[in-house]
Amino acid sequence: MKKPATIKDIAEKLQVSIATVSRALRGSTEIKKETKEAVLEMARQLDYHPNLLASSLSSKKSKIIGVVVPTINRYFWSNSIAGIENLAYREGYKVMIFQSGESFNKEVEIVETLANSKVDGIIIAFSKETWTFDHVQHVIDRDVPVVLYERACANLGTSKIKTDDKNGAFILTNHLIARGRKNIAYIGGPLALGVCKDRLEGYHMALQAAGLQVKQHLIITLEDFTFDLAGEAMQQLWAGADKPDGLICFADILAIGAMHAAHQLGIPVPEQLSIAGFGNDETSRFISPPITTMAQPSFEMGKMAARVLLEEIACSGEAHEKKHEVIKSRLIVREST
């Protein structure tokens, strides 16, 4: 087996010091352009590859951050990851991405794996099953910076980046009320998640502010975010005697499932039933009719989370203020309302 080339090999070939080669490979401005070019060319000829583990041990930085999300097959999460990676790469960091699959046990294993892998910091969005947060507190106690993303909790002293979910749901419900809807239903997610509680509360607030009754039989809480469950919820709502004339869904995926069920039931949208979602999933504008939604700037939110984490990594060991960023969503009106 061929022995990997080292910085020493390059230095001997060019008859320069190891320090010069090291600086040239790092792009140091102290090294002449001609020397840099010669070092890079020799590195190519010798098929030199840097030892990232050795570099991280010497610098005490791995230049890697970990990201934990519930799933990567939803637009909000995938676009957020793209934003995180975009900024991290520009700052010389690599990103390790894990999905918990909405499993608390898997999330605990992932967080422990990341901490033991000596990542410089972690961005995490909790699973729907996460009720306790000791696994994250243990990482914080080991001086690994952590930023909570979208799905956060109040009792961890970390920086947090999240959407103003309560106000977003309030605006969305008000939009349906302004369209003349008076019997508005709600399909939401598991209330163990703070984001689900906040959007449901925003819906409640809008109805109460308009003098409309909050009807518990028009509120359905799902245990998962799937098309099929949303479709079943829509059928359940329509089977009742008190049929809704408007529907707010926690997420666009639920609105799409409800829309499909409405078509099967022969319900004209929006003439008889207005349907609105949340998140501005790419597919929501290609449904017929296109779905009204609240747009979250997920890419920019991901960049913001990465920026906050890298700032905390930079001042590791020093006292610094934790940031709590609350991002407003934007109403996009389409033909479903």
Q: Spell out the helices and strands N to C.
A: HHHHEHEHEHEEHEHEHEHEEHEE
User: What number of structural domains do the residues give?
Assistant: 3
CATH H level of the largest domain: which superfamily? Answer: Response regulator
**Total helical elements:** 12
CATH class division of the largest domain: Alpha Beta
- Under the CATH scheme, the architecture of the largest domain is 3-Layer(aba) Sandwich
Domain HTH lacI-type: 5-59
InterPro entries: HTH_LacI, LacI/GalR-like_sensor, Lambda_DNA-bd_dom_sf, Peripla_BP_I
Organism: Cyclobacterium plantarum
Protein name: LacI family transcriptional regulator
Structural summary, described in words:
Residues 5-59 form the HTH lacI-type domain. Keywords: DNA-binding, Transcription, Transcription regulation. This is LacI family transcriptional regulator. There is one protein chain. By secondary structure, the chain is an alpha/beta fold. The protein has three domains: 7-50, 434 Repressor (Amino-terminal Domain) (Orthogonal Bundle), CATH 1.10.260.40; 62-163 and 298-327, 3-Layer(aba) Sandwich (Rossmann fold), CATH 3.40.50.2300; 165-295, Rossmann fold. It is 44% helix and 15% strand. The protein has helices at residues 7-14, 18-25, 33-45, 52-59, 75-90, 104-116, 134-141, 165-178, 194-209, 227-239, 252-264, 298-314; strands at 64-69, 94-99, 121-124, 146-149, 159-163, 184-188, 219-221, 246-249, 274-276, 293-295, 324-327, 330-332. The strands form three sheets. The protein has a six-stranded parallel β-sheet with strand order 2-1-3-4-5-11, sandwiched between helices. The chain has a four-stranded parallel β-sheet with strand order 7-6-8-9, sandwiched between helices. A two-stranded antiparallel sheet has the order 10-12. Helix 9 (194-209) links the parallel strand 6 (184-188) and strand 7 (219-221). The chain is elongated. The relative contact order is 0.12.
